[in-house]
Amino acid sequence: MSIFEASAPVSEREEPIRVAILGCSGSIGMQTLDVCRKHSDKIKVTALSVNSSTDKLVAAAREFCVEHVVVADPDHAHDAVLEVLDPHCDVRFGARAISDIAMLPDVDVVVNALVGFAGIGAGYSALRADKILAYANKESIVVGGDLLMPLTRPGRLIPVDSEHSAIFQCLTGEHLEDVYRIWLTCSGGPFFGLSRHALKNVTADDALAHPTWNMGDKISIDSATLMNKGLEVIEAHHLFSLPIDSVRVLIQRQSRIHSMVEFNDGVVKAQLGISDMRIPIQYALSYPERWKTPVHRRINWCSESPVTFGEPDEDTFGCLALAKMAGRAGGTLPCALNAANEVANRAFREGVCGFLDIERIVGRVMDATNIERVETLQQLSEVDARARELATTILSEVAR
Questions:
Q1: Class of domain 330-400
Q2: Mean pLDDT across the stretch 291-296?
Q3: Which residue from 163, 118, 165, 109 is spatially nearest to 140, judged by alpha carbons?
Q4: Rounded-to-integer distance, Cα 192 and Cα 189, Å
Q5: Which CATH code, of 3.40.1390.10, 3.40.50.2300, 3.30.10.20, 3.40.50.720, is assigned to 17-160?
Q6: What is the pTM assigned to this prediction?
């Protein structure tokens, strides 16, 4: 099943829409809270989670009068700031509690803004509980698309990623069998045009300086390596039931075109706009309606600079090629790819390895992975753990 087939407009949602924001202290989570402020007449925030940022959790919980909160890291269960929460607020601890609040009866929409493999359990629980899942946790689809997609119902899985939101919008009113290819746009990141030799000495600070988007650290590094775009290719493959090679990556440096769909008759539909994640976040909450924009400015297309297009350099940025390889192979290989990348990405941010080592570590883990058919979350957890262990071993060799 594709997200397009499962995304027929549903009846108008009752307002206020009751929303749970998982990972509310991260980039997507904080921007989701911005949207909720803008539309407080339409949205009620009923549940929030963080890993360890209890100060941000408490501030948001008090502002929005939230009834349920979760701190995933039990080491922060006794943070003094939690004492100022409303005494009637339901406070839970541990990673399992995040999945529990995704299934609460007073939650209509779950915004999954968790980063990495850790978000798959909550997404799975939300879909099993028939919640609307507005998800920015692309890794869960990459790793567990074979498990998650069969759980979708019409209008219950809405992408937050700007590119997949764009594709979702371009497909409205269309027939999936008429799609020739998807043009998945990409800014090219901060290192666009550099050689592999030049990439040897780049730093994490260099990589975090994304040219057009405001994102969290992990995703910013993935964007610099083009792994983020590779993960999005796999994501689009699952969401729209297209072969990996029917999803074409297109460099669009200005980030004005957020993705395009090309049809069999040669017609191309594109979604354009400013580079602000609050717009696709809001659309995931308002779908199938469109609310007043959550941002303060619009583009004056009469004075806008020309947009440009280019081809990604997969020889220089090999993570994109590795992700596409994993997507073609399918099974548990994307899970191993993602796990190895999470380890290597963090190591680079911490100065333990070089930029090009990310690709080397991921490639070696993929080579050592025995590909299996995806069957259960437990199986994926075991594959994830093995890949992380191997990536850590390889990292220790690289770091010598």
A1: mainly alpha
A2: 94
A3: 118
A4: 6
A5: 3.40.50.720
A6: 0.93
